[in-house]
TrEMBL record:
Residue ranges, compositional bias (Acidic residues): 307-319
Tagged with keyword Coiled coil: yes
Keywords: Coiled coil
Protein name in the entry: Uncharacterized protein
Disordered: annotated segments: 274-371
Organism: Brassica cretica
Coiled coil regions, renumbered to chain: 30-106
Domain of life: Eukaryota
């Protein structure tokens, strides 16, 4: 700005020199000075306005910087808080997983403890029924075999009697026709006829009764059989509808522990304890194919036993002896209609009796009564 003033002053001086002391030069000088001052003032005002605008913008930027710094500090504090919370949640999750695994292991052990005596009890009951079936069938077969043996001896004696009697009659007819036959020969066959007739009367065999040739179920008293289930039995056809669809779905659906989706795999509580119960070595229970029939009837609590020989003297009846399947669903998982029932309280299961009675005494009494 000073440069402009000096320039205008120099120009003014030159003008004054050129114009001299004329009034016109003075007026021109004043006008130039006023114009220069006006321009200078206008330039100063414009510079002041720009400076004020820059100051306002600077204050705004400074405020934004302070607010962004405060927000950054707040975000840092929030991040640290969230990290701490995530660490606590991870620790809590680990503890819950450990508690869940411990509860599942305890439940599996408890269920195995309850299932093993149940399986032993069912195995003993099955062996008792099989022994009774074998004994009853053996008695029937012995009677049939004895009848066949005595009938064979009777038929032999009867044939000999018929042979002796026929020979004697033939000799008598021949002698009556005029042919000479010694009487001693006829007397020999007469004695044989009397001898074999007495033997035939001695070995006379009564025919087998219809009960000896009739197949009927084996009837044994069992504390597992319940009369309330017999009303649903179909004695003339299939018993496939003895259990309801809900119970059937439990038999074919794997029961799993229900929990929120996570990275850990779901624990199948029932998959470990569904192994078949092994029978004692040498009993022959594992090798028998009919044992597979025990897996399909947990609802009716029994296995139909039929087509065994029986007699009227064995106190027979049209009934069915039933054997329950070792179904721990009935003792542990009776908890609702869902596919995955809640885990039962293990302490409450400890009060369930697990000791199985020895059924040999009952089997002996029932067999003695039937004989």
């Amino acid at each position: 700005m000073n440069f402009l003033v000096e320039k205008y002053d120099s120009a003014l001086k030159q003008t004054m020199i050129q114009l001299g002391s004329s009034e016109k030069l003075a007026q021109t000088r004043l006008k130039v000075i006023e114009r220069v001052r006006a321009e200078h003032k206008k330039t100063n005002e414009k510079a002041a306005e720009e400076k004020e605008i820059l100051r306002v913008k600077f204050e705004e930027l400074e405020g934004k910087l302070k607010s962004s710094s405060a927000a950054r500090k707040e975000l840092v504090r929030e991040k640290s808080h969230l990290e701490q919370k995530a660490a606590n949640l991870e620790k809590e999750k680990t503890e819950l997983v450990e508690e869940r695994d411990a509860a599942v292991d305890k439940l599996i052990r408890e269920r195995k403890r309850l299932r093993d005596p149940r399986g032993l009890e069912i195995t003993r009951e099955r062996e008792r029924v099989e022994a009774a079936m074998v004994e009853k069938a053996s008695r029937r077969f012995d009677r049939v075999r004895d009848h066949s043996t005595r009938l064979e001896a009777f038929e032999k004696a009867k044939n000999l009697y018929g042979q002796a009697s026929g020979t004697k009659k033939c000799l008598e007819v021949i002698k009556a026709s005029g042919t000479e036959i010694p009487q001693e020969m006829i007397d020999v066959f007469a004695e044989q006829e009397k001898l074999y007739e007495a033997e035939v009367m001695k070995l006379r065999v009564e025919p087998l009764s219809d009960s000896d040739l009739t197949l009927s179920p084996l009837v044994l008293p069992s504390r597992f059989a319940e009369e309330r289930f017999r009303t649903s039995f179909d004695p003339y056809g299939s018993n496939v509808n003895l259990i309801g669809p809900e119970t059937a779905s439990w038999l074919v659906t794997s029961l799993e522990v229900v929990e929120e989706p996570s990275e850990e795999p779901l624990v199948d509580v029932t998959s470990i304890a569904t192994e078949p119960v092994k029978s004692p070595v040498g009993s022959g229970f594992d090798e028998r194919p009919e044992n597979e029939n025990l897996k399909g009837f947990p609802g009716k609590d029994g296995l139909e036993i039929g087509d065994t020989l029986d007699g009227e003297e064995d106190n027979d009846g049209i009934e069915e002896a039933s054997l329950p399947r070792p179904a721990e669903e009935e003792t542990i998982y009776e908890a609702g209609d869902t596919d995955a029932p809640p885990l039962p309280v293990v302490d409450s299961l400890a009060s369930i009796p697990t000791r199985a009675e020895d059924p040999t005494a009952a089997a002996t009494k029932s067999l003695d009564g039937q004989d």
